[in-house]
Amino acid sequence: MTDLSAFPIASRWPAAHPDRIQLYSLPTPNGVKVSIMLEEVGLPYEPHLIDIGKNETWTPEFLSLNPNGKIPAIIDPDGPDGKPFGLFESGAILVYLAEKTGKLLPADPAARYETLQWVFFQMAAVGPMFGQLGFFHKFAGREYEDKRPLERYRAESQRLLGVLETRLEGRDWLMGDEYTIADVATLGWVRNLVGFYEAADLVDFKSLKNVPAWLERGLARPAVQRGLNIPARP
């Protein structure tokens, strides 16, 4: 039986199946990237709900695995050299799982780096900007009298959507005919922007053609539908 006792997080969220990948997450845009990925590649895993509303990401046990205090994080009991391996940051986890399985990341070096480029585009631009727009449009930031931050993030989010719109011209997926981790990384954020953040009108989403069609294709994938609700909320 796999021993995960070296990981303090496993004492707070015990593994019923320690031989499976342990996922510590919540169904947010960053969280669902990894659950979708795990569903897509078919690796067995065990999800643990980390309640950010209860500040569980700031507990010593969670911080011992992810010092950044954000979801998601994983422990792979069959990591490099067959040893248990912990990893945080969603983009790094996507790359790790893709390389572990040989799926959703092209083997061709040029295509591989191009795919990583779009994963990093999501991590460095789409995620942070869309998240800030959500704060100023839907959450506490909407009460701010100064609307300049909202306008800043609205304009930048529209620009980023324009980048995606241009990239997807004549393409089903960000890399063309092949669905990759670049799509896995980005789908949840666009979905949140127009759905949960209720910002579709704010960014004039209906004026786009390629991004809505890509989002619809992505959300139609069974693995995406399953992953969007893992770990299940109470």
TrEMBL record:
Q: Which domain of life is it from?
A: Bacteria
Q: Which residues form the signal peptide?
A: none
Q: Name one Pfam family in it.
A: GST_C
Any idea where the GST C-terminal domain is? 108-234
Keywords from UniProt, A to Z, are: Transferase
In this protein, which residues make up the domain named GST N-terminal?
Answer: 18-105
Q: Name one GO molecular function term.
A: transferase activity
Q: Which family does it belong to?
A: Belongs to the GST superfamily.
Protein name listed in UniProt: Glutathione S-transferase
